[in-house]
Structures are given as C-alpha cells and as structure tokens.
Design brief:
A hairpin with a 5-residue loop joins strand 11 and strand 12. The strands form six sheets. The chain has a five-stranded antiparallel beta sheet, with helices on both faces. Strands 12-11-15 form a three-stranded mixed beta sheet, with helices on one face. The chain is built from nine helices and 17 strands. By secondary structure, the chain is an alpha+beta fold. The two termini are 34 Å apart.
Length: 361
Amino acid sequence: MCIIGIFPTLKTTAVFSSAKAHAVINAESGELIFGKNEDTRLPMASTTKIMTSLLLCEYGNENREIKVTREMVAVEGSSMGLLEGDIVTLKDLLYGMMLASGNDAANTAAIVVGGSVENFVRLMNKRAKEIGLLNTSFETPSGLDGENHYTTAKELALLAAFAMKNNRFKAAASTVSYTAFYGNPPYKRTIKNHNRLLKTYEGLNGVKTGFTKKSGRCLVTSASRDGKEIIVVTLNDPNDWQDHKNLLDAGFDALTTLKASYEKEKININVVGGKSDYITIDIPEISVNCLKGGAVTTEVLAPPFLYAPVKRDEKIAELLVYLNGKVYKSVPLYAKEAIGVQEIKPQIRFLKQFLAILFSV
C-alpha cells in the first residue's frame, strides 16, 4: 500500500541550511514545506537503516532469538558489539540499528529476513517502489557507500513518514536509552541513541543519524507539536543539529489546521425491504494539517439505496477528503444501527422496491 500523495506545493519562504540538500515535509500528507535540492540523488549513509528497520518490524515476532553467524558480523563500520555465536532477539537488533547504528545489526537483520544480504537488498528496493520512491536505490542494508546507493532528501523524508506509522519502528526511533540482553550467554547491555535532539528539542520523536566520508553528515528527524508532525531531512550537512532545529521551527510555523466543510451534516440512504425506509449517516468532522493557504473540501460517495438487511457497523458509504483539489484520504462511513427485513406481502414488497429504485435514480 502506498501512502504518499502528490499535492500542489504552495509558496513558502525559504529557510537556510548548510546542507547540500534538505527537505521539510508535513508527515500527515507528504506535502513539501521547504526544500533545497530536494530531488537531487545523494548518498544517505546510515539513514538507510530506516528501511532496514522497517522491514525488520514488518517481518514478524520481535522476541525471536537468533544465533549470530560469522557471515552476519562480517561488516565494517559502526557496531552494536555482536560476536559470532551470540544469542540476540530481533527486537535487540532493531534497537541496535536505530540507536547504536550497528552495521552488524543491519547485516544480521538482512540475513534473517532475506536469507542473504543480496536478497534483502532486493526486498529493500521492492519496498521502496511500493511506497512510491522512484529516485531511491539501495545496495547495502547498513548504508555503506555504493555506486548505486542513493536517495533524495524528499524521498528519504517520505520514507521516514511512512516508517513512523509503524508502532514498533516509532518506539525504537524515539528511544533515548535501551536495555538489551545479548551475548553468549546473553547479558545486560545499555544502548544509547546517537540522535542528541531527542534530549534537546521539544516534541522530537525520531528518527536516524548517519555519516560516511562520501555522504557527509546525514540526519532525519521527526517532531510533533499541537497535533502536527514534521519530518526534516538534511544530507551532507556539517551543521545539522542547529539546522534541524531551525527547519523544524519554520515547518511548524508554515502549517495550519483546517476543518473540512460539507453541505450536510447527515445524509439518508433509502433501504429497500427494511423495517425502516432509510438509514441515517452522520458525517464526521475532519481536520487536516496543511500549508497556510491550502483548501480542504469533501465529497460523500453513497449508493442511491441499500437492500435489507443492513448490519450494524457495516460500511455503507465513503467520505473523500480533498486537499488542494487532490484526494488526501478516504474515511469509511458505517451503519450505526441494524435494519432488519420487513415481512410484507409479495405484491406490496415489489411495489415498495420499485418505487424506492424509481425515486433514487
């Protein structure tokens, strides 16, 4: 399933950063708030582990224990300290990636989930396409540099927004310190998060740091304030901590909350052959976070009639919410009550059905 929407971008005042590329998006809608070279392909270092961790979260039982092999830890760079023969859970691998940025954790997760690193990379690229990332390519699960290992600031932000909707991923991304148990035999370890903004920026709840000599400093952050959520990405940014504070502040200032408007608060749908002639649907209030100057409208999609019986909590209509003329989301509308079948003579039943259909078209 793809959550990414393409919406008309409204004009906003540019915000300076030292990054080679940056993107600030509204996590709720995917709207680009600010950008600088946001569509330029660049290496992304260990922010790659956002995808690796997402696939691990989607894989299965987080308490499953793995025995670490030599192949799993045969990788250079940052580490959570895994050794051949260690016993470690999938959950500890997740936190070892997201907090300690362990390349050993990423390699181990890749082999567990994909059967091999090469097959896991294929899964990464497949998932990227499913999400809608067309300018992103993975070569490694850890983020080590590769000729075809790249993304864009905007697509990395969209990936982070998608991943943060996974509760297991979000819990790890927002954790400052984690107690793990692994080893041979397992023993207690404390893993600290490299993302210092979790302690210094109010509302910050993720997501990932990264660095190689080729990519420079890379950082992805997510923060919530007053019901709004912002994702910020900087690629190759020597001043990323301060730049993210500035970009997050500016992003929140650029957003507003709009209530959707509709012609009616309730609609009636005819019910053919029911104990009641119609069923009433309440249209829920919908609020959308969007750029100032945006427009939110709605449309109810409902059938002209229903046949009895109608079950309680049965989906009978749909509310489409439009942001700047594009479908933003669909809200299912359910029957609040059940309507049983009316027992009447065949001739009268036929007449009522005929009249209901005649006057509904």
